Each structure stands twice: as C-alpha cells, then as structure tokens.
Amino acid sequence: MNMTEKILAKAARKKEVQPGEIIEVNVDLAMTHDGTSPPTIKTFKKIAEKTGQKRVWDPKKIVIVYDHNIPPNNIGAAEFQQITREFAKEQGIENIFKHGEGICHQVLPEKGFTKPGTIIIGGDSHTCTYGAFGAFATGMGATDMAMIFATGKTWLRVPESVKIEVNGEFQEHVTAKDLILHIIGELGVDGATYKSIEFTGETIKGLGVPDRMTICNMTVEMGAKNGIIEPNKTVIEYLKKRTSQKNFEIYTSDPDYDYHEEFYFNIDNLEPQVACPNSVDNVKDVKKVIGTHIDQAFLGSCTNGRFKDLKMAAEILKDEKIHDDVRMVVVPASSEIYLKALKEGIIKIFIDAGAIVCNPGCGPCLGAHMGVLGPGEVCISTSNRNFQGRMGDPKSKVYLANPIIVAKSAIKGEISIPE
C-alpha cells in the first residue's frame, strides 16, 4: 500500500484497503470554522432530535476556528459566531479559537493538532493542507461534518493514487508556490479528481514546513481528495515543539507500489508562474503577463500568509513605496506570525511602504471583507483561487503569484518581477 492507504486501513481497522473500496473510518480530529460551524450545528441538532444523542462524540477532538469573517463584518457573520460560541459552551468544546488567532489551516499545526498518520476532516476544502505533516486530511460539507460530530466516524471511497516526483533546484525568485502552480497548469483543475496526490523526489524531501503546506494546500485545486508528503526531520522537529507527543506514527509508501498515474518534474529551469483569470490552471510564465495593470495586491491566505512569505515580500518592499494606483493588503496567517513579523520589523516595512496590515484571518481571499474588489478591478494575490467573482465583483480579475511577484507588482503598479 501507499501512505494514504496505510493510514486509511488503520483508521478502518483493516489489514489493507484497495482503491475504489468504500470504508468507514474513525476520525482523529474534526475542524470547522465560523463559516461552516453553524450549518454543521444545525444538522447535528436534527440528528440529535431523531436519535436522542445530544452530545458530540468527543469534544476534545473537535476544533473550531473563527477566521473567515473575523472580526464579524456584518450582522449575519456576528450571528454565525454567536451560534458557534453557544454550541461550544453547551458541548464542552474547549478548542475554540475565536479571538483572531488566525486561519484554521495555520492555527491547527501551530497549536499541535496536526499529527502524522492521523485522519483529519475539516469543514473547509483546504483542509488538505495538513497532508504536509503526513496526515490524511480532506474537506467535507456540513452534513458529513455533523455526522462526524455525532459519531466520530465517516465513510470514504479509497482514492486512486497519483505520484508526483520533483527534482532540481529552485532558481532566484522561484518558490514552492510556483511549483504547485506549474503542476496544476500541467494536470488541469480536474486532473486529479478524487485522487490522492503523493509528492516525492529530492526537491520535496528537502522542503521545510511552510513550503510543504503551500504545496498540499493547493492539491484541491486539481480536484484531489488529499495531498500528502512523507515527513522529514524538519517536520518532526516542528511537531515536537508544538505538542507534548514525542513519537509519531510515520507511514511510508511501499517501494513497489503501483500508482494509478505518475508525473515527473524538474525545476532547474522553472520561472516564476502566474495563474491568470479565471482558472487556477490558466498558468503562464510571469514574463508573459508583465505590464498588466493592477489595482490591488494581496499578501496572505492559508497558502502564503506564513512568516517566510511575509519576509520574502518585505525584502522587496524595504525602502520602497507602493504605487499610488495600488492598495496593498497584508494579512498574516496567524497572530503568532504577526507577532514575529512585528518583532523583526517586517510589519514596519509594510506600513512604511504604504500597505494596509490587517488582523490575522482569511481576509480578502474569499471576497468577504478587508479588500473586496470592485467592477473591473484587478488583483494580484498570493492566495489559492482566482475564480470569477472570488474576491469581489464578478467583473473583477485575480492573478495568483508568489509573495515576491506580488510585492514587486505592488511597487510598479503592474505585474512585474525583480530585476
């Protein structure tokens, strides 16, 4: 079996599983946020009415994070958060982060909830981010999340597996974001529908935690069920600092495993990439879109809002000024990252350059608040999606790029690359 199948087999209490097989698994961790908690709670209460079971299966294994509309930007968002707070108190759910701690996909690893070899199901499509830690992690809708809240179990079809091997060295101004954009551009938005993507190769093995998270975060943009990477020493050291647990269940794929598909990439000559409107697989070398006017630059999200991303952008913005035609919005992925950036003078660099630095959260990524686009406006963003209307008006446009390109473009007022 491969890594994913071994984790699923353990969770299903079976010796082995096969692609296409329907299994019931025990969930190790369930996560919802301020947007998906209320519909999950509503369905959970319907289940309670029919079954008489009014308590969640294990309050210690449920994590709730306020991140999509924090602080609430309208009455509906405020009501959603009220409902969630009341439910958490009623059920004894202590793992609720409601004071701007950050984006769920950053907060869970920081707080030690993501562990190798576990099953993590979240009420958000980018839950696949946790595959960076060797976990099986995937997103589900409110009905499925409600059943998990009630039973601690869910059903899955064992996905077919895709192996993506990456070798070579990143060139200047080229990042893990460019790699995953390039892969999505090659495979397409439906190139891995309901498949498990396993990343390997010398390039992947050498990556640290932030880059692994960026790569796994965007696997859902190819339609994948999950993305996963075998943990290296750096990942294990990160986990040991975040949890009292010192020994982890690390799964590896059998060397003779026969994958459904295999793809090989060499990045020695890879240039910075940009996903152009209105699809994540509409990927081009940045040189082909240089000079495109922008109205907004967004640095943040669960894809590229980590400290490493902020630092890369700050190195470009130091002693520079953001173009008069551009508003730059910076949203650190967590309060921990925000404080570190503040301590190291990075936040000052952003403010001195003319950027708007907002509290940790999802912010402009989903077009909810703190940077909504108007008709015809163009944004270059470090986030993960550029669908029509994703960040605001349906007539606006979104380009996806790495933090370096976003920062340089903010200075120039058009899509640009450092000299």
The overall pLDDT average reads: 97
Q: Tell how many strands the DSSP assignment holds.
A: 18
Q: What would CATH call the architecture of the largest domain? A: 2-Layer Sandwich
Q: Could you name the ranges where pLDDT drops below 50 across 5 or more consecutive residues?
A: none
H/I helix tally: 14
**How large is the share of residues in beta strands?**
15-25%
Biggest β-sheet strands, sense, barrel: 5 strands, parallel
Please list the strands of the largest sheet in the order they lie side by side.
4-3-2-5-6
**CATH top level class name of the largest domain:** Alpha Beta
Cα gyration radius (Å): 21 Å
CATH topology of the largest domain: Aconitase, domain 3
Function: Catalyzes the isomerization between 2-isopropylmalate and 3-isopropylmalate, via the formation of 2-isopropylmaleate.
Family: Belongs to the aconitase/IPM isomerase family. LeuC type 2 subfamily.
Subunit structure: Heterodimer of LeuC and LeuD.
GO molecular function: 3-isopropylmalate dehydratase activity; 4 iron, 4 sulfur cluster binding; metal ion binding
Word description of this protein:
The chain has 419 residues and is of the alpha/beta class. The protein has 2 domains: 3-264, Aconitase, domain 3; 273-412, Aconitase, domain 3 (2-Layer Sandwich), CATH 3.30.499.10. It contains 14 helices and 18 strands. It has helices spanning 3-11, 37-51, 75-91, 104-110, 142-151, 176-187, 202-205, 209-217, 233-242, 301-304, 307-317, 335-343, 346-353, 403-412, and strands at 22-26, 29-33, 62-65, 96-97, 119-122, 136-139, 153-157, 160-167, 195-200, 226-229, 261-266, 273-275, 283-285, 296-300, 327-331, 356-357, 378-381, 397-400. The chain has a 5-stranded parallel beta sheet, sandwiched between helices. Strands 16-15-14-17-18 form a 5-stranded parallel beta sheet. Strands 10-9-8-11 form a 4-stranded parallel beta sheet. Helix 6 runs parallel beside helix 8 (209-217). The protein is globular. It is an enzyme of class 4 (lyase). It comes from Methanothermobacter tenebrarum. One of its GO terms (biological process) is L-leucine biosynthetic process.
